[in-house]
Design goal:
- The protein is globular and about 90 Å long.
- β7, α13 and β8 form a beta-alpha-beta unit.
- 38% of the residues are buried.
- It is built from 14 helices and 8 strands.
- It is an alpha/beta fold.
- The termini are far apart.
């Protein structure tokens, strides 16, 4: 009878035989799935944020998908075009030649001088006026490399190509008035005189007292404080901020009546008569017009108007600031401070006047006669 072999098996070996082979786990642990989901969400958020903060490309006038060209334009040295409109007497017969710089969210058709100057004053004094679309507005090409100096150089080149002579006058309203500061800084040798009509103020200009600037800044509506703050500290976010619908927009972009003074409301019928050309103002894109304007106006400047020197040391010309004391857009306290610290500026403060005092009957006649030194 055969007998079997008696083997001794250790406990460890027995356990090894009874243990099942491990299979690779095809599913991640809950913590791993959470991490992967968060990464995907974060990447998705970044892609979304990039898209919503990136402005769409401009619709260039004259391009296949862009608006048509309806006004004369000059071609600048860098290849851009600047659209303009002439008013008054023919420039060859003019004694005084004025370049008008329009305000925020406006265009060359918003020339308050041409609209409001008395025809008798224009003819008797021989006044020629040219208004133009600032870059990105109306029919002027956007300037992707726009700087404080570049807009002044554009104005100089406009004068040269139109043959306005070695010297000319500049008049700017609101943000157009702020552009006149750039002319006084970068092309003072080309100016015969300058008038700044309620020029916009940058709350971060060096030289403004912090307490005075902060007080004026906080007098704005909260939504406008934020819009200015974004333009100054995060200009790359300006497009999103002023197109989103979560928070109130910048009051001027939204055309809010809450920023109008008593006088402004009375003048409103004169201001809102813009239906025939209003669509042209932002036709190349909101970013290239109003949003880029905000970034330039409230961004970081490489100089301060408070540091400017008198461009007319021998009184061969003059610089004037006109300001209403009831202006709810431009703080009169800061305007006074600037004028007090620039003794060569002739400051005119109008009692009870708001932002749109230039539309008061006879006001532009007074402004231009003062600028030209005539009665």
């Amino acid at each position: 009878m055969a007998t079997g072999v008696n083997r001794k098996i250790s406990a460890a070996s027995a356990r090894a035989h009874t243990r099942r082979a491990k299979k690779p786990n095809s599913l991640q642990s809950p913590s791993g799935m959470l991490k992967a989901s968060l990464v995907v969400l974060f990447v998705g958020f970044l892609a979304w944020a990039y898209q919503v903060t990136r402005p769409p490309p401009p619709k260039i006038c004259g391009s296949p998908d862009g608006p048509s060209i309806t006004s004369p334009r000059i071609k600048l040295r860098d290849g851009r075009h600047l659209s303009y409109k002439e008013h008054g007497v023919p420039k060859d017969a003019a004694k005084y030649k004025i370049i008008y710089v329009h305000a925020f969210d406006c265009c060359k058709h918003d020339d308050v001088l041409a609209k409001n100057l008395s025809p008798d004053v224009v003819e008797d004094l021989g006044i020629y006026i040219v208004s133009f679309d600032r870059p990105g507005y109306g029919e002027s090409d956007p300037d992707p490399n726009r700087t404080l100096k570049s807009i002044a150089v554009d104005i100089e080149e406009l004068a040269d190509q139109l043959g306005l002579g070695s010297k000319f006058y500049v008049v700017g309203f609101s943000m157009g008035g702020q552009v006149v500061w750039n002319c006084l800084k970068y092309i003072p040798h080309r100016l015969a005189g300058a008038a700044l009509l309620t020029p916009a103020i940058n709350y971060w200009w060096p030289g403004l007292p912090a307490n005075l600037s902060t007080e004026a800044y906080k007098q704005q509506r909260l939504q406008d404080q934020w819009a200015c703050r974004v333009s100054h500290y995060m200009p790359w976010l300006t497009y999103w901020w002023n197109t989103q619908r979560w928070f109130p927009l910048y009051s001027v972009i939204a055309h809010s009546p809450d920023i109008l003074s008593h006088q402004d409301r009375e003048l409103l019928p004169k201001i809102t008569n813009r239906k025939s050309y209003m669509a042209q103002v932002r036709q190349q894109g909101e970013y290239e017009s109003v949003h880029r304007d905000l970034n330039m106006a409230f961004g970081k400047w490489d100089y301060s108007p408070l540091d400017l020197e008198n461009p007319f040391p021998t009184d061969e010309g003059s610089v004037h600031i006109w300001q209403g004391d009831d202006d709810l857009l431009v703080p009169v306290t800061l305007q006074r401070y600037i004028a007090q610290n620039l003794p060569w500026v002739q400051y005119h403060e109008l009692q009870g006047a708001g932002h749109f005092f230039v539309h008061v009957d006879g006001m532009t006649d007074t402004i231009i006669k003062s600028l030209l030194g005539v009665k």
